[in-house]
Amino acid sequence: MNEKVKMASELFSNGRYCSQAVLGAFCEEYGMDREIAFRVSCGLNSGARCGELCGAVSGAVLVIGLRYGDYKEICNQRTEEFMNTFKEKYGEVVCRDILGCDISTPEGKAKFIKDDLFGTICMDAVINAAQTLSDLGY
After folding, report:
1. Percentage of residues in the chain with pLDDT exceeding 90?
2. Could you tell me which residues are beta bridge partners of residue 94?
3. Which of 9, 33, 94, 99 is surrounded by the fewest CB atoms within 10 Å?
């Protein structure tokens, strides 16, 4: 496990959301203060609280934007590259599909807690997003 992946894992284990953990592990390399990164990405967890785009994926896309945001075409290409690579493992980038439940519903939230999906699937998604970024040269 490389340093960025380890940092993302530790941030997540220590109470940061998936989006915060991924962005927080990479942000300083691209000129963003970690505390600002935590604030900016806070609302992206749990698919922006409605089970949509996985928070770990959202955090990774923010990292890509930090690096390539001045170059729209390159940023778009690198985002697509990340998404395709992430999908190879999960088949999806949508939070509720990755989890197998919709945490924006009471039933889905109960399943999420009961099955400890935070500590299993979400942790794996954070590690995979950070590893994918690392593998792609971030």
Report:
1. 95
2. 53
3. 33
Check if the beta carbon of residue 113 is closer than 8 Å to that of residue 100. no
Burial of 59 (0-12, 13-18, 19+ CB in 10 A): buried
What span, in angstroms and rounded, lies between the C-alpha atoms of 69 and 74? 8
Where would I find the H helices in 48-122?
55-68, 72-90, 95-99, 106-114
What is the pTM for the complete model shown? 0.95
Residue listed under structure tokens 């999960």 = 90
Provide the phi-psi class of 48: left if phi over 0, else alpha when psi is between -120 and 50, else beta. Answer: left
**What's the CA dihedral at 68, 72, 75, 81 to 10 degrees?**
-160
Number of CB atoms found within 10 A of residue 14's CB: 8
**Of 51 and 127, which is predicted with more confidence?**
127
**What digits encode the pLDDT tens for the residues 3-59?**
999 999 999 999 999 999 999 999 999 999 999 999 999 999 999 988 899 999 999
Q: Are the beta carbons of 114 and 69 closer than 8 angstroms?
A: no
Cα gap 26→108, rounded to integer Å: 31
